[in-house]
Design goal:
By secondary structure, this protein is mostly beta strands. The protein is 5% helix and 40% strand. It contains 2 helices and 14 strands, in the order βββββαβββββββββα. It has a 6-stranded antiparallel β-sheet, with no helix packed on it. A hairpin with a 2-residue loop joins β4 and β5.
Length: 193
């Protein structure tokens, strides 16, 4: 039996603040060798060490699979979310809809690929557009279970007030690309108290 030395590369987790208070872009820790890649999706101690909140336990996890051009969101429920692409690519969009927030009204966009994730705080609207040729799979981890009618805000993803430049043009009448629910969401941010 021969033993070959395998080159192992380790990329540390990197957490980057954004223009929205509490919204973080995160590059997952990755370990690569000749067999492939291990991505560390969540390690509480690493999050706390990077200045992010402790988020466990996750009470619900969902995966959506969306074809090219599909837009989902913008939804800002009363729960923290950790979101990531597990297949394909997406254009992530985040809007601070919290009237008491110092960054109220800010919009952040990010190109999402494997190994990147976004920590979305309570009340910040989360949405995305699938931009890869193959369907993209978007993983959501929630610190609360979603229930119909739960507290939160939804915003129309094509709102002129938000000015989001979706990379793939969206036809407002095509409910295969955007749901009727999302099309009926308010076009304006909630009023500040």
């Amino acid at each position: 039996m021969t033993t070959a030395l395998t080159t192992v590369s380790v990329t540390p987790m990197i957490a980057e603040k954004t223009a929205i208070d509490g919204l973080w872009l995160i590059q997952m820790k990755e370990v690569k060798d000749g067999r492939g890649i291990i991505r560390e999706f969540y390690r509480e101690s690493a999050f706390v060490e990077a200045g992010l909140p402790s988020l466990g336990p996750w009470l619900q996890m969902n995966v959506t699979e969306s074809s090219r051009g599909v837009v989902r969101g913008l939804h800002g429920e009363d729960m923290h979310k950790l979101v990531a692409i597990i297949e394909g690519e997406a254009f992530g969009t985040y809007v601070d809809a919290r009237p008491a927030s110092p960054t109220y009204g800010a919009v952040v966009t990010a190109q999402l690929t494997k190994g990147k994730q976004v920590l979305v705080p309570k009340g910040v609207c989360n949405g995305f557009q699938s931009v890869s040729d193959q369907p993209s799979q978007y993983l959501y981890c929630f610190d609360a279970e979603w229930v119909p009618g739960m507290a939160g805000t939804s915003l129309h993803p094509l709102s002129d007030q938000l000015g989001i430049a979706w990379p793939i043009p969206v036809d407002r009448t095509d409910t295969d690309l955007i749901s009727e629910k999302d099309l009926s969401a308010p076009e304006r941010l909630p009023r500040r108290g």
